[in-house]
Amino acid sequence: MEKINVIKVGGGIVENPDSLSQLLTDFSQLSGHKILVHGGGRSATKIAASLGIKSQMVDGRRITDEQMLQVVTMVYGGLVNKNVVAGLQARGVNALGLTGADINIIRSHKRPLKCMTLDDGTNQMIDFGFVGDVEHVDGQMLSVLLQQGVVPVMAPLTHDGKGHLLNTNADTIASEVACALVPYFDVTLTFCFEKSGVLRNADDDSSVIPHITEDEFHQLTQSGIVVGGMIPKLENSFQAIHQGVRQVIITRTDHIDGQGGTIIE
Amino acid sequence: MEKINVIKVGGGIVENPDSLSQLLTDFSQLSGHKILVHGGGRSATKIAASLGIKSQMVDGRRITDEQMLQVVTMVYGGLVNKNVVAGLQARGVNALGLTGADINIIRSHKRPLKCMTLDDGTNQMIDFGFVGDVEHVDGQMLSVLLQQGVVPVMAPLTHDGKGHLLNTNADTIASEVACALVPYFDVTLTFCFEKSGVLRNADDDSSVIPHITEDEFHQLTQSGIVVGGMIPKLENSFQAIHQGVRQVIITRTDHIDGQGGTIIE
After folding, report:
1. pLDDT in tens, B166-179
2. In Å, how far is B263's CA from the nearest CA of chain A?
3. How many Cα neighbours within 13 Å face the side chain of B142?
4. Radius of gyration over alpha carbons of chain A, in Å?
């Protein structure tokens, strides 16, 4: 079976022209089949603020109201995605920018209301707005494109099949895409972020844990070594492994070839 | 040879939710192979204004500076394009949003400085900024996608192959795409706009000229019956016919099946 790398990079790296340029060069040099999934992050918040749209947050989570959905559609689907595509084309990579709506690649449904306990201890039903939970990724169509030498560049947007775009977490898109490709490829999923991997000591970037099993993950969570946003990232990772992804790598954005990061198999 | 319809619609229709919805329904009901090319127009100007970016105009033409290029990339490539794609998917059309950068579909070069005589009679070298003149359309790749049942939805953006997106007139994109498909399909190109066709009397929408030859076009221009933006539209049309497009139709946006408009063959 042929190999494929599904690489997820955060919004921070694509906002800065220098780090974006380095990323695109590194990505263009990866051999074989590949997919780039990008976040958007702060640029959407910044442009929303310039347009006088306030980012609504509940308990640290962003609520995607109709105006914010328009902004993320512009910023993730347009500005970020198309600049990445043009930059990759300039480096000889036959990139194709996709949201989940394009060729119906990722179908999702609007997240149902969720009961959450807020910081003040009260419970509240929260409507996250136009946020999509993934239902189906068309791995076969992606596979056809990849076999034609096309390199998909995926924005964190999906659609519900009823005409609505939905905002979907880029980590989730990357792991769902990786899983959908398992019947067609030998899949490696790489999450790139600002640190060198899963760290034993959050303040020491040299304390990378080179390899984590699921049992170790539970121990690391219970002992408070793995906290915050790393928990869903690792949960996504183990879910991908259970669904047949060969390995997941968590590493720094300047190590998209996976060297030196944390490996989950 | 199989038939294809290349339909160009202006920015006005895609901005209004009701007219957009009607357009998408009409387009979804066209049988056979088809491509939708959309403009963006006023929504970009409006969003630019909200962001505090002024549209620079010289002699009625917009100058695309770097900030405006970012806005059109967001609005045409993101907001408009992806909403059209999601709306078509909801109507059973397997739409794929494309800028010229995606899979290198439309390569262009930045328009060189141009000497223009301004309204006050002086000559000036004008830099139109990030505006792309089309060099090459990959008709073969479009044809491969079309044969797979994919319906391309094209935003008025191209790229120079050096990492730069460029703003390109949607009428030009439609006619260049139509010409590039001539080796693969029997091509009809339809320009939809707010009037019923080429009018003998601009104030009378029932005065449509049903058929225009190239000689008649020159007479109509000389006699001042065809003026303004209709001249480049007809020039584009005859150029397409010379390059093998079977017919060009200029009609109202609610007649994308071509009925009742002006036919150029």
Report:
1. 999 999 999 999 99
2. 32
3. 32
4. 18
In whole angstroms, give the CA distance from residue A49 to residue A131. Answer: 20
Q: Show the domains of chain A with their CATH numbers.
A: 3-189 (3.40.1160.10)
Please judge whether B99 and A79 are an interchain contact, meaning their C-beta atoms are less than 8 angstroms apart: no
- Can you give the pTM of this predicted structure? 0.95
In terms of C-beta density within 10 A (0-12 exposed, 13-18 middle, 19 or more buried), how is residue B22 classed? Answer: middle
Check residue B103 and report its DSSP letter: G
Q: What integer pLDDT is reported at residue A137 of this predicted model?
A: 98
Residue B64: strand pairing partners: B129
* 8 A C-beta contact, residue B207 and residue B199: yes
Distance CA A100, CA A133 (A): 12
ipTM: 0.94
DSSP, collapsed to helix, strand or coil, labels residue B83 as: helix
Q: Scanning every residue of chain A, which has its alpha carbon at the shortest distance from the alpha carbon of B92?
A: A161
Q: Tell me the residue type at B228.
A: G
Q: Return the residue of A nearest to B50 by Cα.
A: A51
Adjacent-strand bridge partners of A221: none
Q: Check residue B34 and give left, alpha or beta (phi > 0: left; psi -120 to 50: alpha).
A: beta
| Euclidean distance between CA atoms B49 and B33, whole angstroms | 38
